[in-house]
Task: inverse folding
């Protein structure tokens, strides 16, 4: 299984995502923002960071990178795509996912171990979780508050497209405590917290994030 | 303003020049004239003024800093010593680690966010310049009283600036310090440390050799920010009046720096540079003169080829600009095509601005006319050296003679109240409000970060090799006795490394002092350097570099002498490290080391507005025995935590709160001294009861005393008859900082 990790100028967690992919049993392939060639990957991860400095709106410039044209096309055809943090923001800007990520309610960058509840295990990224599992992975961002209009929120909820929700106090003001969502087809997932930083208790708070990277193998091989 | 060239300078020797406004003294200006045999051109004057500033030339500190070389212990670990952008240490397995700490105090007071942000940016480029990938940052910070209005202005800005810049670079922030003291009310200290790693054969130096090689400027365009920053800001005392100095503070762009880091590392990996220097304080003046001076001396630069953000800048301003995120490399002509290609890949602006020449002159032209023609060594390395007068200040004997009059808790209620008061004081309170604004996870190699005793980073995923770093200072001890204060800070930093199981290897420092023109301050400085050099020699730890920050004062009042000492250590297997706290009940807690009545300079004394008495005398032999014990006994320690500010009371509170596992402690000594004294050379360890004999053997082998304190478990911290529920302790510990700044 080949999973691509895109490096944009300003991507920070690309090497961490590649490490997590390997830990999950797949091969990590480096993809470059300026290269539309996806090099035959089976799935793509858009990692965290501050692509282009996020000086405009987070993800607003990356959305136009040559590689995104190919990813949007493949995602619409069903290829699994996971956007973490800045990757989630890019997916929203690309209209692969609805809504937007806005500045945290507390107005500060916040880096903390965060409990989230997995609410949808039917995506290729969450397949290895048990429905309702509560896991602890790092949350770290300045603009992680998920916002959308009421009809979108009602749609996400009624269609079971909220894949993960914050547990406890709302860390950033996200609507309905949303930490992650998926598209209608269920192949594109955006997640604000960072499972790639929770694959080994030695370097992260837990190893709870690993199923996000092993699921893809289970799903594709199981097919 | 008409262009002033070397030719004009030669023919108009009597033209008046604004050397004083640029921070040069009359005799310094005279010396420039003697070196050149004529008056300097205005561009030359600009270069000399910034390079001969206190910040760049170390003119007041040089004669003292020499001791770090003269008294250097023999060390096989030192690969690059003082003088380069940062020292480099061999940590084994072919890896070299470089680390350095630098101050950005004055800019951060003027413009907290940008001042602190560019402080991070500058130290990261110093590390990158050595050829290393930056892997972590730390930030020792000092502010005025926590409830002072100006602290509310500068602290949130500084913290946001450090986070905003460091987070965007993808560098984990693994520790530091936050201290509040009225001495810093008008002069906060923002020290920034960065550590980087490379293979031995990747070390790069700042030298321009090989005539015909190209001088390449890459990174951000040059703008008008930070012009004269070093001379105007870092080398003058803040007065209460005077013009706004904001234009001298640089503005940072972390995205550009992140791209510059990746671009540079790719260039280094292909071995495309002969020498490299970052542009920090004194900008192009510094980079060109230091590179030329580090080589054979000859260099020609066409200044009009420098890409500008503001096309109206004069050549003098371009030479002095401290625009951030710029690097200057020396590249062989055969490698320039590939160099440019990599810059293009990363969208990094790059220009060939000159070449290395035969001879020993640095010549800079502006549209064909020569505006600078100087021997570069006289700019970069042969600046003025002052042996400034020093005198022991009168306060020393007076405050040393003061007898402390402190409340000494003895009943259960008093002990409980004292612990809660201490643990909730701003200096001892939980700093998560600050550290949660920093990314500590990025890069996936962070083993330890705040609130552990030291930060620890894995540098090899397959062999589990890692490094640990700690920074420490006790300014009150340095105020009472600067010689001992420096040694004590060194010992504490080394101990903080060893508690985790890492072997101390090398030292960096950031020496924050008042005006060197005050003989009393100069005495504090001289004593500090003497103490640190003696301490490093005794402990066998080389000083690899550092930074001196003078003029930290408001009006005539200097800050307390604040030498921040950083120690780096190596750990063979990070999986075996000893954490600061325990997760299990039923472990035995021991105090290693003796407790004396050392309340002078303690947090308890500070909380009661007393700064007198005598600092402890550092016993470095005992410290070294303790370190050996900690390293040898690593496998039996479930936890180990250093005792420093706040003494045993704070150490125990931090240990029980970390994993919410309580402890029951029995103290036989006078309880106030046992809990509140800050005698150095002590550590609390947790071991399994079955390892008691092994600990006793270790203690006897290393001639260190151990005392059983009690056992872990339960939902309270119980000290003799005082029972403090963990919930109550947690609320006291965690609410202070958010209430003040949240």
Result:
């Amino acid at each position: 299984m080949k999973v691509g990790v895109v490096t944009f100028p300003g991507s920070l967690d690309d090497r961490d995502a590649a490490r997590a992919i390997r830990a999950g049993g797949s091969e990590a392939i480096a993809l470059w923002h300026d290269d539309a060639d996806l090099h035959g990957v089976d799935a793509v991860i858009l990692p965290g960071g501050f692509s282009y400095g996020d000086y405009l709106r987070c993800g607003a410039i990356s959305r136009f990178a040559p590689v995104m044209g190919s990813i949007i096309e493949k995602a619409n055809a069903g290829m699994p795509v996971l956007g973490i943090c800045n990757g989630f923001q890019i997916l929203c800007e690309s209209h692969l996912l609805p809504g937007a990520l806005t500045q945290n309610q507390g107005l500060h960058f916040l880096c903390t171990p965060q409990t989230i509840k997995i609410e949808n295990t039917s995506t290729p990224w969450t397949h290895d979780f048990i429905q309702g599992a509560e896991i602890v992975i790092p949350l770290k961002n300045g603009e992680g508050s998920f916002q959308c209009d009421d009809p979108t929120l009602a749609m996400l909820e009624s269609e079971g497209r909220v894949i993960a929700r914050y547990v406890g106090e709302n860390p950033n003001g996200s609507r309905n405590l949303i930490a992650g969502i998926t598209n209608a087809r269920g192949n594109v997932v955006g997640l604000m917290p960072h499972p790639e930083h929770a694959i080994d208790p030695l370097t992260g708070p837990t190893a709870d994030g690993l199923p996000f990277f092993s699921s893809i193998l289970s799903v594709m091989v199981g097919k | 303003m008409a262009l002033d060239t070397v030719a004009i300078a030669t023919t108009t020797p009597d033209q008046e020049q604004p050397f004083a406004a640029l921070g040069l003294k009359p005799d310094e200006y005279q010396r420039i004239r003697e070196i050149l045999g004529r008056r300097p051109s205005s561009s030359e004057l600009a270069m000399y003024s910034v390079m001969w500033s206190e910040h760049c030339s170390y003119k007041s500190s040089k004669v003292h800093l020499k001791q770090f070389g003269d008294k250097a212990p023999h060390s096989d670990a030192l690969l690059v010593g003082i003088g380069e952008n940062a020292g480099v240490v061999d940590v084994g397995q072919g890896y070299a680690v470089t680390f350095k700490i630098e101050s950005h105090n004055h800019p951060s007071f003027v413009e907290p966010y940008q001042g602190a942000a560019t402080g991070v940016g500058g130290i990261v480029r110093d590390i990158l310049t050595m050829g290393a990938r930056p892997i972590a940052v730390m930030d020792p910070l000092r502010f005025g009283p926590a409830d002072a209005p100006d602290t509310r202005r500068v602290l949130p800005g500084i913290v946001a600036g450090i986070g905003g810049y460091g987070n965007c670079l993808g560098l984990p922030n693994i520790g530091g310090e936050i201290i509040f003291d009225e001495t810093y009310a008008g002069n906060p200290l923002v020290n920034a440390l960065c550590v980087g790693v490379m293979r031995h054969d990747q070390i790069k130096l700042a030298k321009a050799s090989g005539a015909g090689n190209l001088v390449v400027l890459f990174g951000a365009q040059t703008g008008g920010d930070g012009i004269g920053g070093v001379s105007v800001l870092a080398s003058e005392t803040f007065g209460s009046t005077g013009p706004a100095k904001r234009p001298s503070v640089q503005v940072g762009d972390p995205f550009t720096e992140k791209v510059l880091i990746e671009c540079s590392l790719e260039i280094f990996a292909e071995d495309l540079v002969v020498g490299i220097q970052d542009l920090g304080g004194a900008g192009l003046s510094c980079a060109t003169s230091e590179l030329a001076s580090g080589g054979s001396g000859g260099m020609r630069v066409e200044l009009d080829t420098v890409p500008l953000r503001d096309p109206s800048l004069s050549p003098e301003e371009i030479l002095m600009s401290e625009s951030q995120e710029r690097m200057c490399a020396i590249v062989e002509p055969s490698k320039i095509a590939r160099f440019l290609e990599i810059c293009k890949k990363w969208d990094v602006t790059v220009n060939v601005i000159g070449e290395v020449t035969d001879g020993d002159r640095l010549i800079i032209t502006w549209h064909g006319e020569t505006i600078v023609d100087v021997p570069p060594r006289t700019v970069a390395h042969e600046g003025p050296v002052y042996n400034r007068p020093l005198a022991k200040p009168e306060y020393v004997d007076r405050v040393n003679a003061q007898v402390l009059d402190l409340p000494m808790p003895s009943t259960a209620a008093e002990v409980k109240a004292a612990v809660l008061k201490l643990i909730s004081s701003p200096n001892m309170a939980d700093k998560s409000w600050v550290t949660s604004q920093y990314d500590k996870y990025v890069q996936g190699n962070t083993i330890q970060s705040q609130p552990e005793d030291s930060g620890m980073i894995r540098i090899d995923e397959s062999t589990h090799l890692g490094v640990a770093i700690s920074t420490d200072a006790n300014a009150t001890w340095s105020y009472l006795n600067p010689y001992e204060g420096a040694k004590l800070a060194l010992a504490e930093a080394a101990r903080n490394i060893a508690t985790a199981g890492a072997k101390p290897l090398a030292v960096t420092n950031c020496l924050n002092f008042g005006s060197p023109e005050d003989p009393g301050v100069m005495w504090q400085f001289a004593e500090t350097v003497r103490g640190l050099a003696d301490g490093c020699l005794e402990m066998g730890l080389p000083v690899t570099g550092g930074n001196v920050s003078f003029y930290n004062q408001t009006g005539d009042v200097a800050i307390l002498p604040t030498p921040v000492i950083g120690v780096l250590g190596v750990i063979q297997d990070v999986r075996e490290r000893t954490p600061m706290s325990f997760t299990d009940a039923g472990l035995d807690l021991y105090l290693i080391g003796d407790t004396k009545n050392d309340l002078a300079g303690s947090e308890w004394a500070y909380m009661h507005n007393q700064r007198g008495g005598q600092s402890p005398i550092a016993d470095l032999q005992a410290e070294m025995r303790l370190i050996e014990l900690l390293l040898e006994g690593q496998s039996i320690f479930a936890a180990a935590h250093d005792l420093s500010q706040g003494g045993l009371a704070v150490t125990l509170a931090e240990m029980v709160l970390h994993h919410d596992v309580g402890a029951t402690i029995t103290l036989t000594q006078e309880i106030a001294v046992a809990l509140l004294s800050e005698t150095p050379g002590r550590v609390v360890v947790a071991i399994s009861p079955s390892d008691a004999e092994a600990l006793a053997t270790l203690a006897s082998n290393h001639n260190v005393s151990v005392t059983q304190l009690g056992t872990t478990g339960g939902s309270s911290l119980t000290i003799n008859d005082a029972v403090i529920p963990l919930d109550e302790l947690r609320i006291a510990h965690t609410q202070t900082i958010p209430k003040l700044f949240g």
Notes: Chain A has a mean pLDDT of 96. The longest strand of chain A covers residues 110-118. Chain A has one domain: 2-222.
